[in-house]
C-alpha cells in the first residue's frame, strides 16, 4: 500500500475547553514554567559571575559561550541532564559546594546543518572537574550519540576528578573510567568524534579526547596524565603543565593531537570545519519531498490542556494533534484496546509513531454498556501496543511514548485473563526493539506501567519529563494508607478512640505522604538521573522535531522501510483502522 492514510486529528481548543478552564490551566502551567526558567538560569550560570570573569581574564570562553559559538546561527540547542545533582551539596573543608549540572554541559545541537551531541566541561565550576554523577551524565550523552549515530564534539577543559569526592566518582561500573570505554565503543561503531582541547586537561580530562578522530589544541591547552604540581611533589622537578603536555608536545612530538590553533574562536571554527566533513543528514531523503509543517492547532496550546489536579482528565488525542505536522494522524486499531492510542504522523516532515495513554472513562469490552477508568493498562491495550511496537521496529519507524499511566489492571479477572503474560510480552518487545524510542512522562508515571510504557529502565534514547510529571510506584496518599494499614478500618479511617494515638497516626500519615510527594517531583528525578530533562508541554514539539530528525540523520545502521511495505498496513487491515 503506497498511501499512509493521515487524517485530520483533534479540534480547536474552544470546542473542548471553556475560557475559565483555559485560564485555570494556563495559570497552573505558568507557575511551573517560571520555576523551570529560574532553575535553568541558576544551573546555566555555574558558580557565578566571579568565575565567569576568571575564565574571561584568561582569554577563554565559558562552556556555554563555546556551545553558542559552535552551533548554527539561529538554531536552538536542546540540553540533556540540566538538573543532574540539583539540590545536592558536597562538603569540602567545612564549605558546602554545589555542582550545577554536575559541572558539564551536554546538548543536542545543529552544526553545519547536522545534529551533533556536544559535551563541554563547565570551566566555571571547579575548573571543569568531574564530580559525582559527572561521568554518568557524560556517558548518557555518549550513549544517545551511539544509539543515533550522531557525531560527538567534545569541548574539553577539565582538571580531572574533584578529588574531595573521588570515592563517589572514581570506582564502579559507571565511574569516570567508563567514559573512555564509551569513547572506544563510539569509535568501533564508526561514530565521528571530534575534540577541542581548551585548557587544563589532567588525568581523565586528558584521556577523554585521545580516542577522538580529530583533536585540536589551543595554545593555552595541555593534556597530561599528571600535572606539574603532582610531578614536582613526586619527583622534585621544576616543570609547568604546559611544558609537559602542551601543543608543542602533543601536536609535534607525541602525535596525541592533530593541530594547534591560537585560541578558543579559532578552535571552534576548526571544529565546525571538521563537522562539515562528516556525512550529511539522511533526513531530507526520508521526508520524500514532503516539507515540515506546523500543527494545525498551535503547539503552544499544550500549556493550556492540563488541569492542575492530576486526577482530572484531558484528551490525549488533542495533545497528539498539537505535536504532529498539520495535525494529521493515522490512528490504528482505534476500536480495540481503547485505553491506548497508537498511530503514525509526521513530525518535522518525518514519519513517527506515537503511543499514548487515554485518560478518563473508556468502554469495558468485558462488560458491554459499562465503562472502566483509563490511564491503566488492560489486556487488550497491552496486546495492541505490543504488536504496534513490534511493527514499528520492523518498519524502522521511531516511536514516541506519551506516558500518563497509573499502572496495570489488577484483581482476579485480570490475573485470569493472563495479564502477567501479556505484560511480559510487551516487556520483551520493548527490550529488544532496535528502532529509536523516545519517552515523555506527561503526568503520571506509576508502578509497573512506567516500565511497560518504555520508561528509562527500558533504555529509550531520551526520556523527557514535563514540569508536571509525577514518577513513583504509588501516590503519596495511597502509600501512607498502605504504611498505616494495620491502624485503619475497612473504610481507611483510623481505628482508634485514643485522641493521642489518632493525632500520632494522622501526623505519621501526613509525613509519609509529604515525603513521597517530594520524591515524585521531577527535579528530584532529574537530579538523580531518573529522567534526562524537564520541559514544559509547549516545548515538546520542538524537542520532538530535534529527536525525530536525529533518528533519521545517520543512514545504513538500521532498516528504514519505505511506506509501501510497512507491516503497519497489514496490522491495520487485520484489526481495522485504515
Task: Describe the structure using short key phrases.
578 residues, alpha/beta, 2-enoyl-CoA Hydratase, Chain A, domain 1, 3 domains, 21 helices
Would you kindly provide a written description of the structure presented here, covering whatever features stand out?
The chain has about 575 residues and is α/β, with parallel strands linked by helices. It has three domains: about 45-280, 2-enoyl-CoA Hydratase, Chain A, domain 1 (Alpha-Beta Complex); about 285-475 and about 520-565, 2-enoyl-CoA Hydratase, Chain A, domain 1; about 475-520, no CATH class. The protein is built from 21 helices and 23 strands. Strands 1, 12, 13, 14, 18, 20, 21, 22 and 23 form a nine-stranded mixed sheet that branches. Strand 5 and strand 6 (about 115-120) form a beta hairpin. Helix 4 packs parallel to helix 5, helix 13 runs parallel beside helix 15 and helix 17 (about 475-485) crosses helix 18. It is globular and about 80 Å long.
Amino acid at each position: 500500500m503506497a498511501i499512509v492514510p493521515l487524517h485530520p486529528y483533534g479540534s480547536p481548543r474552544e470546542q473542548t475547553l471553556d475560557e475559565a478552564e483555559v485560564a485555570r490551566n494556563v495559570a497552573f502551567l505558568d507557575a511551573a514554567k517560571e520555576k523551570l526558567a529560574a532553575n535553568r538560569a541558576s544551573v546555566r550560570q555555574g558558580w557565578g559571575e566571579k568565575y565567569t570573569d576568571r575564565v574571561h581574564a584568561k582569554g577563554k570562553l565559558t562552556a556555554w559561550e563555546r556551545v553558542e559559538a559552535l552551533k548554527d546561527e539561529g538554531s536552538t540547542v536542546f540540553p540533556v541532564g540540566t538538573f543532574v545533582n540539583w539540590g545536592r551539596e558536597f562538603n569540602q573543608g567545612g564549605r558546602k559546594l554545589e555542582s550545577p549540572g554536575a559541572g558539564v554541559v551536554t546538548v543536542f545541537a545543529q552544526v553545519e546543518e547536522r545534529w551533533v551531541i556536544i559535551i563541554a566541561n563547565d570551566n566555571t565550576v571547579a575548573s571543569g572537574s568531574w564530580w559525582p554523577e559527572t561521568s554518568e551524565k557524560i556517558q548518557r550523552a555518549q550513549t544517545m550519540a551511539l544509539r543515533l549515530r550522531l557525531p560527538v564534539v567534545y569541548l574539553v577543559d577539565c582538571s580531572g576528578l574533584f578529588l574531595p569526592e573521588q570515592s563517589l566518582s572514581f570506582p564502579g561500573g559507571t565511574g569516570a573510567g567508563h567514559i573512555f570505554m564509551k569513547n572506544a565503543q563510539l569509535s568501533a561503531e564508526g561514530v565521528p568524534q571530534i575534540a577541542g582541547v581548551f585548557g587544563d586537561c589532567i588525568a581523565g580530562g586528558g584521556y577523554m579526547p585521545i580516542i577522538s578522530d580529530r583533536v585540536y589544541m589551543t595554545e593555552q591547552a595541555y593534556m597530561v596524565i599528571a600535572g606539574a604540581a603532582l610531578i614536582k611533589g613526586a619527583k622534585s622537578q621544576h616543570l609547568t603543565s604546559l611544558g609537559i603536555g602542551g601543543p608543542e608536545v602533543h601536536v609535534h612530538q607525541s602525535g596525541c593531537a592533530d593541530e594547534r590553533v591560537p585560541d578558543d574562536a579559532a578552535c571552534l571554527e576548526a571544529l565546525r570545519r571538521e563537522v562539515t566533513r562528516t556525512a550529511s543528514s539522511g533526513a531530507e531523503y526520508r521526508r520524500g519531498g514532503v516539507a515540515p509543517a506546523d500543527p494545525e492547532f498551535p503547539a503552544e496550546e499544550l500549556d493550556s490542556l492540563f488541569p492542575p489536579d492530576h486526577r482530572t482528565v484531558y484528551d490525549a488525542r488533542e495533545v497528539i494533534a498539537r505535536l504532529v505536522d498539520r495535525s494529521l494522524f493515522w490512528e490504528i486499531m482505534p476500536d480495540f484496546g481503547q485505553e491506548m492510542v497508537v498511530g503514525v504522523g509526521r513530525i518535522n516532515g518525518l514519519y513517527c509513531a506515537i503511543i499514548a495513554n487515554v485518560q478518563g472513562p473508556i468502554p469495558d469490552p468485558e462488560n458491554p454498556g459499562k465503562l472502566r477508568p483509563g490511564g491503566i493498562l488492560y489486556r487488550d491495550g497491552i496486546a495492541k501496543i505490543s504488536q504496534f511496537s513490534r511493527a514499528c521496529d520492523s518498519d524502522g519507524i521511531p516511536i514516541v511514548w506519551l506516558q500518563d499511566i497509573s499502572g496495570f489492571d489488577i484483581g482476579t479477572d485480570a490475573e485470569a485473563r493472563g495479564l502477567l503474560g501479556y505484560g511480559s510480552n510487551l516487556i520483551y518487545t520493548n527490550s529488544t526493539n532496535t528502532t529509536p524510542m523516545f519517552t515523555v512522562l506527561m503526568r503520571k508515571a506509576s508502578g509497573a506501567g512506567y516500565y511497560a510504557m518504555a520508561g528509562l529502565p527500558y533504555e529509550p534514547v531520551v526520556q523527557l519529563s514535563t514540569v508536571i510529571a509525577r514518577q513513583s510506584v504509588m501516590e503519596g496518599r495511597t502509600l501512607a494508607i498502605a504504611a498505616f494499614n494495620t491502624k485503619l478500618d475497612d473504610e481507611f479511617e483510623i481505628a482508634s478512640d485514643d485522641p493521642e494515638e489518632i493525632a500520632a497516626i494522622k501526623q505519621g500519615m501526613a509525613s509519609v505522604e509529604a515525603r513521597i510527594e517530594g520524591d515524585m517531583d521531577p527535579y528530584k528525578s532529574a537530579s538523580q538521573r531518573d529522567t534526562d530533562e524537564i520541559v514544559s508541554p509547549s516545548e515538546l514539539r520542538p524537542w520532538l522535531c530535534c529527536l525525530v530528525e536525529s533518528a533519521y540523520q545517520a543512514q545504513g545502521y538500521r532498516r528504514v522501510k519505505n511506506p509501501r511495505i510497512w507491516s503497519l498496513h497489514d496490522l491495520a487491515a487485520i484489526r481495522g483502522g485504515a
